[in-house]
Every structure is written in structure tokens, then in C-alpha cells.
Amino acid sequence: MDGVPRVPEQRRPGSPAEPEMPTEPEMPTEPEMPTEPERPAVLRFGVLGPVRAWRGGEPLATGSPQQRALLAALLLREGRTATASELIDALWGGEPPPQALAAVRTYASRLRKVLEPGVLVSESGGYAVRGLDEGALDLTTAQDLSSEAEKARGAGDLCHARDVLRRALALWDGEVLAGVPGPYAETQRVRLEEWRLQLLETCLDMDLEQGCHAESVSELTALTAAHPLRERLRELLMLALYRSGRQAEALAVYADTRRLLADELGVDPRFGLQELQQRILQADPGLAEPPAPAVRKTATPVRPAQLPATVPDFTGRASLVRELSGALSSASGDGNGDGRVMAVSALAGIGGVGKTTLAVHVAHQARAAFPDGQLYVDLQGAGARAAEPETVLGSFLRALGTADSAVPDSLEERAALYRSLLDGRRVLVLLDNARDASQVRPLLPGTEGCAALVTARVRMVDLAGAHLVDLDVMSPDEALALFTKIVGRERVASERQAALDVVGACGFLPLAIRVAASRLAARRTWTVSVLAAKLADERRRLDELQAGDLAVKATFELGYGQLEPAQARAFRLLGLADGPDISLAAAAAVLDLPAQETEDLLESLVDTSLLESAAPGRYRFHDLVRLYARACAERDEHPPSERGAALSRLLDFYLATAAGIYAMERPGDRLVDHLEPTRHEGLCFAEGTAALDWLYTEGESLLACVRQSADTDRLRRGVDLLWAAKDLAESGANSRQYEATAIAVSEAARATGDHRTEGRARTTLTNVLLVSGRIHQAAEEARLAMERAASAQDVAAGSWAANDRGLISLHQHRYSDGKTFFDQAIRGFSQAGNRAGEATTSFNLSRAHLAMGNVGKAVSIARDGLTLLAELGRTMRLANGHYALGVALTQAGRLTEALSQFNEALTIFVDHRQRLWEGTTHFRVAEAHIAAHRPAQAAQHAEQALAIGCIGGDRMRGNVLTLLGRSLFALGQADRARACWREALRLYEENSASEADEVRTLLAPADAA
């Protein structure tokens, strides 16, 4: 990262400006003593834009341009004194007016009245700004943030470095020192703009290091258009394009750059750019992804004492080993009286996660720091009879050299003697498998220099001063490495994917991996694929995961057996729900309990490590624990019907809440009146942001609940839930999961012969197919949906199916058919009183008229639909109205109006998190800009459309690339334009799109050449 620039002291000639006549002359002969009055509000200043000042949130008058120039010159000196002659040079250069000195004094006097006493001081014949609070000047804040980012990057924390640097860049507010005259201000403008570009390049460089390739292309395209001769930006753009899979465009950027530099400057690109071109041509693997940071090696352990032997195949956990080793090494033992008594680390986690293995490994590593011994005990905390502290203390005292006859009888006396014997020694105590903090407290050393390492299934939040560590499962790489160490490299190398399937089925739990690998190692005739197939059956997976005295189910049984009845019921029923996690509100619905009581139960399960807290208010099971919980539910839940009732309550909760959000997002849309009734009222939200937060947070769990409803009597409600949550598909947030769910429930509905449910299921499937641009598949689903809806007399589904068939007809250039379907849909919506549905379909009808050349009619229909929706409130569908009107106005040549409509649409789409519609709107904005002969703006919006994605899949991506190529060609970047057109042609040909002919025409001159 470039160094942080500081303000140089320099003079530069410039044109003199006539000063204001001095009205309050001031002679800065005696220095003023700064005062420290009580300040009601903090002063802040800005120079990274117009020169401004605020007291708290109130702006202050900074006077005339020359007066602001004086304030800027003083602020940029960062507290140093500027003499009168230096200030005159800063304001007027080498030709100051006759009354320049008097003017400077007047400006200073006026500023002093505006600012707080003691801020602008006079000394040594000059002036200075002093006593500002930290962060009072935006430039200083930017410099500090830049330094922080540089340190974070040096430490390898790129995520923090990028965030900090973006915060620094956000401080710029237009042109630096805007409107401030004088040569000094002009010099600083140039300097600070150059620094801004350097920071921006650094930030974009880190974006690429973090893998944000596609997102960076749009910004880099705009920046290279604005700064065409800045080679570093071109280099970053090439790298971003290459990593986004757009190699041809990356090479085209180089060709455009070489031609531009030759034409403008008569030079070749610098070496770095040339080298990057060669590496791209050679498909250098080093360019594909940023290099992984080096992993620091930890020290090798030395001598044993009471510690059990560490496992020879210990794998991974490097960061935790460092963390725990650091905590243990913090035991001072130097008698400096710093208040530290000892170091205590408490390691908690689910059974089988490797707590003991990790603790023993760390203890061996730390032995050198504890030359006076290492004590170890298994406290049997997970068993029915945990070890008594006085018994453990007796064994510890004997290990420390105490004779049997000298061991006291009582717990208190043994603990006191134990602490006395450890005084002045450096001893490590490993307390394994603890029950709770009360069992551990008497066993802790009491003096500095000693340390204790505790493992337990419960999180010991009540163990004062302990460094708490929650142990999670292994990473996939660590899990595969452990499996390979046990099984052997040759067997795994030939069946790597099967090995990945095995460790995945084990949930990356170390005990499960060890059991599975041990079974395979003992059976030479088995292949890894045989083991993977055995573990693929979820109902038998826990039975397969046992070898000798090692069994995953047995370790879970220990924890389950210690639960209270209410905890055990919660554990069983929550395990029934699919999905990656579950919210507190959803869990309350499953258990049919109040939220507070539910939270207490769930938190108690977290404390036992049978449940994990994924985030505040969200909980999840480890995959194998979930299977065990379901087995417990089948075995122990009475009556058995309670299992289905729990899932029914969960489905009701999701459906009621999603329906409420649908109604909030689409006032006037009567779909919610046609959904299956529920017994749960669901959640209510006061405003849309919280509602959308819930929907997108719950997306995966909600869809999993729908899939669980297939082949059950809950299918109707499941399909209605999928329909009410259609934003998950249209936004692109959960499109793949949504499609898989729609297929599953469609097949289930077809098997039941329930035409109403099948029609609705196929309507949801049509919707997601249209979003992804698979028109032929969507056409068949929409036809079947319309037939089933008609058979079931389901007006709601039939109207939406007709609307979808109209959209499909437009894609197939059957515009008259499209108009017919849209008219049919509007009649259906009108019959059902669904005004929002009428308006939405009218926007599509506008597109049909537009395609048939009825531009005026199209504009009129879109405007009428927009007026109707506006009466219903500012809804998400209002954005579709602005979008449709913008498209019609663009074709009518009313580009300024069109852009205004698109901007309105973008604001609403962004607010409602409809990213695919946001990307599609950027494409339409680009169309308007190219029609207005503004290729740079068109290219920027087209790049944003590519980075975000669009409704319509690969076909729409081809449209965007075609338009981007036109924009780049107009900007003189011909090679990159042709690269875009070639990629568009490939997409069109793969999708049999008629637009391919247009692109072939664009490429024809190049092909002929």
C-alpha cells in the first residue's frame, strides 16, 4: 500500500485575487494562550470536498472563498504554525495584492469568531489551528484509516483492510477543496486526488485478492474510461476479467491500452502490463486465484509427565493450537505483581469433536513452559458418576510428593495444601471431561506461573477469569487429511471424491472420521466407495459409525441421558426439522411453547453442546447429532403423532409469516386470501426491512420445510408457502433451492391427483424457470399449470399462469398470443378483485404493444398501471411499473424521462433486495445511455448488470454483453468489444436465440479483416 501522504510546505505561483477590504485588522504580535473551555459540541472540519466546518451537527459559516482558502491552508498544516508570508503565498502566489497582509488578518479574525476559543491561535507572527479533537479533520481520519488498513493488510487481515480503506475513500465528497482559490489549494487538489486514486487502486487490488472479481469489473470499467492512461487500473481490470472467466476481454483490454498509449504518448505499456498479458496468454495457474497465506508453524512439544500420549495422527486445528498455547503461556510466573494469578482455558464442544485430543496436544506443546510438572485427570463429567474433587486432589497431592499420611481428609484442607505445594512452581494442570465449574474450581492452582486447561461438554461461563474456547468440527481439508492419515494416501488418492463423501457424511466430526477410517483400514477388501455407500443411508449412518469400543452414537447417548425431560423433548422435536438452522420463533412453534421458555431450553442445550448457537436467536444441530435426535424421537416420543404435529406447527408458522410479508410487499394483491388457512398467526413486522430480513434469513430453512411437506398431508400448505415466498426465486437469493423444491412438490402433487395443488406447484416452477431464462421448459410447465388450475377452478393460479404464458409468448415473438394471454389474466385478476395483479399484468401487456409497434399505447398502459399501483402504496411491484414505463419511454425516444423511471425502479428494487431485477434495470439504463450517445455511462451500467445478474439467465446475459460491446466500441476499445460480442454469440447459439444474427453482423467486419 502506498504511504500516507502528509501536507508538503511549498509555494506555487498563481493568479492573484482581489482580497476583501479588512474591517477588523489584527496584529498577531503577542501569542494567544489557548483556553480549554467546556465545549458543548465537537468541532469538525472537512477538506476532502468543499471546505466546511460543523459544531456538532450544525454547519458553520466559513466565509468567502479566500477566507476558506486560509482555513484550508491552516488545517492542512496539521497544527504547525504558518507565517503570514506563507499564507499570502498560499492564497495569491507570487503576485499578492497590496493589502494582502491586512486581508489575512481580517480572515483570521472572522474565523476566530466562528470557531471555538483557543482553536485558531496567533503566534510568532503567524497562525495555527490547534486543540482539535481526534477525528475532527476528515483528511486526518483518512490518513489514520489508511495506516490502519496498511497494518491490517500486512498482518494478512484483508477483509478488515478493505473495509477500513473503503471507509477512508468514503470521506471524499466531490472535488477536494472545491471552490477554494489560490496556488496552494490547486497543488493540494492534485496531490490528494492522486492519493485517492492510489488508495482506490490498493482497495481494488485487495478486492481481487479476496476473490471479488466479477464485482470489481464494473467499477474498473468506469475508472479506466475516466482515467484511460492509468496503467495500473488497466492491469487490475485485465486481472478481474480473467478471473471472471472473460479471458478474451482481458486480452482485448491490453490491445486497447497498447494502441491508446501509442497514439497518445508514443510509448509501449509498462513491463507489468506486458507480463500480465503473457501470463494470461499462457493461462498461468498463478493468476486463477490469489495465493493462500502461509501458515505459521508451531513449536514441537518436548517432555511428557502425567499427560496421556498425544495421538500420532493429530491433524489440523492450527489456529486453536496457537490460541490455546498463547493463553497458557500468559501465566507470568515472574513475580512482577501484575495481578495475574494463573492462566485458565476452558475448551467446550460436542462429544466426539476432539476436545481431549486437542487439549492433550496443546499440553504437550506447552510442557517446556511448565518445567515443574504436568498433572492430568479424567473427571468423568459426561458419565453417571463424575469424579469427586477431593478424590482428585488426593491423587494430585500424592503426585506432588505428599505422603499418604499427610493428605488431609476434607476437601477444603486438601485444596489449601494443593495450592500451597504449587506456590512458586510452574505446573500445568489438564482437567479433562469436566462436569461443570463447581467440580473444577477446587482443582485450580492459585498462584502465578501455573496454568489449567479444562475440557467439557458444557460452556463454563461461570468459571471466573477463564479463556473460553468453543471447539467446532474440522474443516473439509482437515477432515480429509485425518482420514488420509489413517487409511493411507494410496487408497484415498484413487478415490478422492468418495473420500470427500465419507468425511462429509461424518459431518467433519473427528470421532466419526476416526471410526469410519478405522473400519476401512481394517478391511482391505473394501474400497472407499463401499464405505461411502454405507454411510449414504442416513437411517443407518450412526450404526455404521462404530468400530471396537469407539461409537459415535454412544458419545451422544451420554449427553442425552443427562437431560431433563423438557430438554430431552426439545432436543428430539427440534431434530425433526430439516434446514441448516432454526430461529427462536420457529423453534417456539415446533415446541408449542412461549418464546422465553423456548429460549431457556435451547440455551441449556447449547450449554450441553448438543445444540449450537449459529447466531443470536438462531440454533443448529451437527448433522450426526440431528440424526441421533431423530432416532430418539422415533424411539421416545409419545404419542408418535406428536412428531407430525411438531412439523405441522412449523409449517403453519412459516406460511402465516410468509403470507403476511407477501401482503406487506404487495398491497392489493389478493393471493393471500386464496392460501390454505393456518392455526399459527406467524410473526408480524412493523416495516418492510425487518420483514425482508426475516424472509432471506429463513430462506433455506423455509424451503427445507416445504420439501418435508411432500408426500404428507401437509402438501397443500407446503405448496402455498412456496408460492408466498416467490421473492426467494425472483431475487436470485435462493433460486436453485427454490427450483429443486418446486420440482419436488410438483411431482408429489401430480402423484396425488390434486389438480389445485399441482397447478400451484407448477406455477411456482414456471416462475423460477422464467427467472433463469429457460423458456421452453417454462412453456410446458405454464401450460400444465393453466390446465390444472382450470380443472380445479383455481382463479388465483389460473390468472398467474395466463400471465406467465403471455411472458413466454413475448420471448417466442408471438406478440399477438401474448396480448391474448395478458388480457385473459387481467380478466381473472379483476374477477378476483386482485388490483395489484391487474396492474402487474398491464405492465407486461405494455411490453406486448411495444413489441407490436404501438409505442404510444404501450406508454399509456404502463402509466395507467403505475397510477393504479401508486394508489395501493409504495410496493415492490411499483418498481416493475417504473421499469415497464422506462422501457416504453426509451423506445419512444424520451430518454430523460426513461432514466428517471429507471432510477425510481432501481431505488425500490434495491430496497426490496431484488438483485436480479436490479441488474436487469441497470441493463435498461445502459440501453438509454447508449441511445443518448453516452457510451461511458452505458458501459458502466452494463458491467453492473453483468456483475449482479439479470432476470432471463444466459439469454439476457448475451443481451448485456452485446450492449457492452457497443459501448466499448464507441469508447475506442474495439478489441474488448469484439471479445464481448463473441461471448454473446456463444450464449445465443447455445440457447438457439434469434439475436445471434445481430451479433454475427457486428462481428462480420472483424472476421472479414
Automatic annotation (TrEMBL):
<dbReference type="InterPro" id="IPR011990">
    <property type="entry name" value="TPR-like_helical_dom_sf"/>
</dbReference>
<dbReference type="InterPro" id="IPR005158">
    <property type="entry name" value="BTAD"/>
</dbReference>
<dbReference type="InterPro" id="IPR051677">
    <property type="entry name" value="AfsR-DnrI-RedD_regulator"/>
</dbReference>
<dbReference type="Pfam" id="PF00486">
    <property type="entry name" value="Trans_reg_C"/>
</dbReference>
<feature type="region of interest" description="Disordered">
    <location>
        <begin position="1"/>
        <end position="38"/>
    </location>
</feature>
<dbReference type="InterPro" id="IPR019734">
    <property type="entry name" value="TPR_rpt"/>
</dbReference>
<dbReference type="Pfam" id="PF13424">
    <property type="entry name" value="TPR_12"/>
</dbReference>
<dbReference type="InterPro" id="IPR016032">
    <property type="entry name" value="Sig_transdc_resp-reg_C-effctor"/>
</dbReference>
<feature type="compositionally biased region" description="Acidic residues">
    <location>
        <begin position="21"/>
        <end position="35"/>
    </location>
</feature>
<keyword id="KW-0804">Transcription</keyword>
<dbReference type="Pfam" id="PF00931">
    <property type="entry name" value="NB-ARC"/>
</dbReference>
<feature type="domain" description="OmpR/PhoB-type">
    <location>
        <begin position="34"/>
        <end position="131"/>
    </location>
</feature>
<feature type="DNA-binding region" description="OmpR/PhoB-type">
    <location>
        <begin position="34"/>
        <end position="131"/>
    </location>
</feature>
<dbReference type="Pfam" id="PF03704">
    <property type="entry name" value="BTAD"/>
</dbReference>
<keyword id="KW-0902">Two-component regulatory system</keyword>
<dbReference type="InterPro" id="IPR002182">
    <property type="entry name" value="NB-ARC"/>
</dbReference>
<feature type="repeat" description="TPR">
    <location>
        <begin position="879"/>
        <end position="912"/>
    </location>
</feature>
<keyword id="KW-0805">Transcription regulation</keyword>
<keyword id="KW-0238">DNA-binding</keyword>
<protein>
    <submittedName>
        <fullName>Transcriptional regulator AfsR</fullName>
    </submittedName>
</protein>
<feature type="repeat" description="TPR">
    <location>
        <begin position="958"/>
        <end position="991"/>
    </location>
</feature>
<keyword id="KW-0802">TPR repeat</keyword>
<dbReference type="InterPro" id="IPR027417">
    <property type="entry name" value="P-loop_NTPase"/>
</dbReference>
<dbReference type="InterPro" id="IPR036388">
    <property type="entry name" value="WH-like_DNA-bd_sf"/>
</dbReference>
<comment type="similarity">
    <text>Belongs to the AfsR/DnrI/RedD regulatory family.</text>
</comment>
<dbReference type="InterPro" id="IPR001867">
    <property type="entry name" value="OmpR/PhoB-type_DNA-bd"/>
</dbReference>
